[in-house]
Amino acid sequence: MTLEEQAAALIRADNFIDGEWVPAQSGRRFAVTNPATGKLIVDVADSGASDARAATDAAARALPEWRARLPKERAAVLHRWHGLIREHADALGALISLEQGKPFAEACGEVVYGASYVAWFADEATRIYGDLIPQQQRGKRMSAVREPIGIVAAITPWNFPLAMIARKIAPALAAGCTVVAKPAEDTPLTALALVHLAHEAGVPNGVLNLIAASRESTVEAVADWLADGRVRKITFTGSTPVGKHLARESAGTLKKLSLELGGNAPFIVFDDADLDAAVTGLLAAKFRNGGQTCVCPNRVYVQSGVYERFAQMLCARVAELRVGSASDPASQIGPMINARAVDKIARHVEDAVAHGATVLTGGKRLAELGPNYFAPTVLGDAASTMALCCEETFGPVVPLFRFDTEQQAIDASNDTPFGLASYFYSQDLRRIERVSRALEAGIVGINEGALASEAAPFGGVKESGYGREGSKYGLDDYLSIKYLCQGGLE
User: Fold this and answer.
1) Do 160 and 114 touch, CB atoms closer than 8 A?
2) All domains of the chain, ordered by start, with CATH?
3) Rounded Cα gap, residues 332 and 324, in angstroms
4) Pairing status of strand 256-260 against strand 231-237
5) Do 353 and 313 contact (CB within 8 A), yes or no?
6) Is 44 within 8 Å of 188 (Cβ atoms)?
7) Which positions ≥6 away from 148 have C-beta within 8 Å?
8) Active-site amino acid positions
9) pLDDT tens, position by position, for the chain (490 residues)?
10) Are 238 and 185 in contact (CB under 8 A)?
11) What residues make up the catalytic site (predicted)?
12) Burial zone of 248 (CB within 10 Å; 0-12 exposed, 13-18 middle, 19+ buried)
C-alpha cells in the first residue's frame, strides 16, 4: 500500500466505547477538513452528553478488573501498544499531516515523541512505590500506599494530536485508571487511530473510551463528565480560560485536575551569548509546528549590544524557511490549523506595525498556497503596548524587543500572568545561575531551544496551570495516597 492508503486504513469515524465503534446516539456528524486545502476528509461522530455518559459507564465497569491487574501486566499491554505505534509510524505521520497540516517529517517526529511516553510509562507502571513510616507507637505499623485515582477524563488540543493524548492516556493506564477521552474537533482522526491500535494491543474493553465532538457539542459532552462523580480526574491541555472553566465546574465533585494551559514564553539573548546557537535555538523553539505550540517563544528580548547583528542573522535564516503543504517533502512549515488562527496572526502583525514595529521579513498571508498559510515573520522594535506582547500569537511570528540590563530582561519576561516556558542564551555561568532562578516558569531552556522529553516534568506555574506530564512525577497525578495504620501487633 502507498503511504496515503496506509493512513486511510487507520481512519475511524465513529466513537470507541466499551471496545466497539459506535456512532453518536443523536446520529449527528461533523466535518473534519484538511487545513492545507479546506477539503473534506471525513464526517465523524458528533457526540453529546449521552455519549459521554456511555463512555463513563463503560469505564466504570472496566475499572475494578484493570486496577486489579499486576503492574507488569499493565506494562505488557502498554509495551505492545508502543510497538504498534512505532510499526505504524509513517501511516500515523501521514494522518497527522492530513488533518493537522504539519510537514510529514515533523509529523513522524511527533509519532516517535508520543510513543516515547507510552514506553516510559509502561516501565513506570512497575515502579509505583509506597512507604513504610517509621514506628511512632509500640504495637502499631503505619504505611502509605499509592492507588489509582479512578476514571480519568482526558481532553486534548489539536496542535499535537498524537503526542498530547498519548502522554495523558499512558500514565493513566499505567497507574491502573480507566479513561474517557475527547480530542480536539479539528484533529480527532489521529486520536481515533491511536485508540484503534491500543485495542489491537490488548487494552481491555471499557478501559479506554474516546468520543469525538464538534466545537458546539463539546461543551455538552464535557459538562457531563464534570458533573459525574465517578470521573475522579480531569487532565486538559488547552487555553487558560477553558482551564479555569473546568476548574470551576469540577469543584462540585472535587475532582483532581492537571491543567497545561496557555503560555507567553520569553526568549532572552544576552550580549555574551553564542549568537549562532541562539538563532538556531530560536528557530527550533519558535517554528516547530509553524509556531503553534504552547512553549513557543512569544517575546524575544535581545540585549542592545547584539540586537542589530542578531536581527540580521535571524532574518537571513527565517527568509530561507520553506512554506508549503505536507505533501511537499521540501516544506518546513505547513498551513495554520484554520482561518481563525490566520486571522489572529494577521491581526497581531497589523497591530504591531500600527504601534511602531517594523516588518523585517514576512508579515503577510500566503494566499497563493492555500487558505491557511502565513509567511514566517520577524518584527523589529516590538514594544509592550502591542497585543502580541500579552496575547499568545500561536503562529510563525517573532517579535524582537530591545533591552539594556539583565534585570530589565528578567522583569519583562516575568511581566505576564503565564509561566509555562522560558528560554535564555548566555555563556556567563554566574548569570546562568541568577537568571534560571529568577524566571517564573515551570520549564527553562538554558542555551537550548528543544525542551520536551518523556523523562522530564512538563508543566507550568501561575496561569499556565498545574500538574506535570512526563517523568516520574507524571504518574503522581493519577494516583491517590492511602495511609494504613495497623494496631494490636503486641
Assistant:
1) yes
2) 3-261+464-483 (3.40.605.10), 265-452 (3.40.309.10)
3) 7
4) parallel
5) no
6) yes
7) 67, 175, 176, 177, 478, 479, 480
8) 260
9) 787 888 899 999 999 999 999 999 999 999 999 999 999 999 999 999 999 999 999 999 999 999 999 999 999 999 999 999 999 999 999 999 999 999 999 999 999 999 999 999 999 999 999 999 999 999 999 999 999 999 999 999 999 999 999 999 999 999 999 999 999 999 999 999 999 999 999 999 999 999 999 999 999 999 999 999 999 999 999 999 999 999 999 999 999 999 999 999 999 999 999 999 999 999 999 999 999 999 999 999 999 999 999 999 999 999 999 999 988 889 999 999 999 999 999 999 999 999 999 999 999 999 999 989 999 999 999 999 999 999 999 999 999 999 999 999 999 999 999 999 999 999 999 999 999 999 999 999 999 999 989 999 999 999 999 999 999 999 999 999 999 999 999 8
10) no
11) 260
12) exposed
Type of residue found at 24:
A
Lookup result for grid cell 469543584: 251
pTM tops 0.90:
yes
Q: CA–CA separation, 360 vs 379, rounded Å?
A: 6
Nearest to 287 by CA among 420, 377, 422: 377
Residue 55 to residue 18: CA distance in whole angstroms: 7
Closest CA relative to residue 423, chosen from 331, 293, 260: 293
Cell numbers describing residue 73: 501486566
On whether the CB atoms of residues 354 and 228 are closer than 8 A, the answer is no
Main-chain dihedrals φ then ψ at residue 423, nearest 5 degrees: -135, 145
